[in-house]
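Fill in residues.
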């Protein structure tokens, strides 16, 4: 058996080698579409910074403010433990979960770009309501609208990128979506750092309202994006689909014939499936269904959103001042962006499995180190009288190395791999499952993290390290390599896998 149980990691059907390279047109459209990740990233980064601003806490969460700023008897680990505060952060992800199911139908019936447009428009409305919020109810309503926008964008963008990109560069172009998420996080950290210094206590309104900028960009740009050839075929537009495929591949009619026939065959198979939600439970789709559930589950249980949601509070907890905690979050945001660029370079060169495995090992090691160092200084009481600068710097360094590992592995690949493994007939439904599972466990982690931090103390990092170890073993044994394989030829990776081959019928036609 080959390492990881995959016999032929580099090739799909050896007879399938579609001509065409990256054209300027497809590069521009993919980059513009990938910017849908900006709204998700901006929200992840903005939430933690806003919830550490004193004027925001005083207005909406006075009990948390009193506990954080005035009550010196409170355990350091428990200063931010508030159900209302975590509901403000996590309500978005519950809304995104529900919205992803509606987005699945819209994406399949109306096209990927329509889903992006709806997502941007609803997100824009949520940003305006949050910026103008006068009470918790307005905050939560705004967050729910933001969540609906995120659900639509995260449903459509990865599919759009996977279908537009040449198969040999599909990984790199899809990772641009994750790069935009990280850029959104970094921009949010910069905005929080600047608005926290504003006089008059309204900086939090600027931070929350800033989400309208990427939302407006998505609304406008989606009007000019073309539909993918796959989407055009789903809407019975074969001639438009052929013309679009020719344009994005930059080759002649004759040269696109093989790829067009395969996409057309996949489309016909898709139309024959009247109930994709029912069919996805069929045995032949079991490998893809399991991956669509476990990959986003594991992505959230790396613990990354603990860092990104609550970095300012986390750094406050380990003894940093207000400015220092926001600045440290800014540093981790910058590392996140730079490390994602490594994935853009490596995902189609080194393969998905290599990055998954290397990133998992690196995350595990540095989560254990963070646990040891925080436990050493803070113990279970959370009290510390003297926090040396070298210690604080070392903890930030450990967290940065951990963030870098996530940013070139589970961050981008957690979105890329699910979007490229599904056959067209179940692709939209399966992507909806990926998004909803991702959002559900993002909600769970966001809702429970501060309470878990209060009760588990520094042991919380060991909790996430256990899952990192588990997911790394899962990838080693059960995830086949998908690089350099045409998206409509992906069945071959399951047929060649030591475990999954038992689920794929021998007579299943290879599209």
């Amino acid at each position: 058996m080959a390492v990881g149980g995959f016999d032929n990691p580099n090739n799909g059907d050896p007879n399938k080698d579609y001509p065409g390279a990256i054209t300027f047109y497809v590069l521009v459209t993919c980059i513009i579409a990938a910017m849908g990740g900006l709204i998700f990233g901006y929200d992840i980064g903005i939430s933690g910074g806003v919830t550490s601003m004193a004027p925001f806490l005083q207005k909406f969460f006075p009990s948390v403010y009193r506990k954080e700023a005035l009550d010196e008897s409170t355990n350091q680990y428990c200063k931010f433990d508030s159900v209302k505060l975590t509901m403000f952060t996590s309500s978005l992800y519950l809304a995104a979960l529900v919205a992803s199911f509606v987005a699945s139908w819209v994406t399949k019936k109306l096209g990927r770009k329509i889903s992006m447009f709806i997502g941007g428009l609803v997100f824009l409305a949520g940003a305006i309501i949050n910026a103008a919020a006068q009470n918790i109810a307005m905050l939560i309503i705004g967050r729910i609208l933001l969540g609906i926008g995120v659900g639509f964008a995260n449903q459509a963008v990865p599919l759009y990128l996977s279908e537009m990109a040449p198969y040999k560069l599909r990984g790199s172009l899809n990772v641009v979506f994750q790069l935009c998420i990280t850029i959104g996080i970094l921009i949010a950290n910069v905005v929080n750092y600047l608005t926290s210094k504003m006089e008059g206590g309204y900086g939090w309104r600027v931070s929350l309202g800033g989400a309208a900028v990427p939302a407006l960009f998505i609304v406008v740009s989606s009007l000019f994006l073309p539909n993918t050839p796959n989407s055009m075929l789903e809407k019975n537009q074969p001639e438009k689909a052929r013309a679009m495929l020719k344009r994005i591949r930059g080759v002649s009619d004759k040269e696109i014939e093989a790829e067009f026939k395969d996409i057309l065959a996949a489309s016909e198979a898709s139309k024959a499936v009247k109930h994709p939600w029912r069919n996805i439970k069929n045995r032949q789709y079991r490998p893809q269904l399991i991956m669509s559930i476990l990959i986003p589950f594991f992505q959230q249980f790396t613990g990354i959103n603990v860092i990104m949601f609550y970095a300012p509070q986390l750094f406050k907890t380990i003894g940093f001042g207000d400015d220092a905690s926001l600045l440290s979050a800014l540093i981790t945001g910058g590392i996140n962006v730079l490390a994602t660029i490594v994935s853009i370079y490596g995902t189609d060169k080194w393969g998905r499995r290599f990055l998954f495995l290397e990133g998992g090992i690196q995350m595990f090691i540095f989560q254990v180190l963070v646990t040891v160092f925080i436990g050493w200084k803070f113990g279970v009481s959370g009290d510390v009288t003297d926090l040396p600068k070298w210690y604080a710097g070392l903890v930030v360094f450990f967290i940065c190395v951990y963030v870098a590992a996530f940013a070139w592995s589970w961050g981008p690949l957690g979105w890329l791999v699910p979007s490229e493994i599904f056959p067209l007939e179940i692709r939209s439904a399966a992507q909806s499952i990926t998004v909803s599972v991702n959002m559900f466990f993002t909600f769970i982690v966001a809702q429970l993290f501060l309470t878990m931090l209060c009760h588990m103390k520094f042991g919380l990092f060991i909790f996430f390290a256990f899952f990192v170890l588990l997911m790394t073993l899962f990838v080693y044994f059960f995830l086949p390599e998908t690089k350099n394989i045409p998206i409509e030829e992906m069945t071959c990776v399951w047929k060649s896998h030591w475990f999954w081959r038992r689920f794929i019928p021998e007579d299943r036609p290879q599209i």
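The first helix runs from residue 24 to 34.
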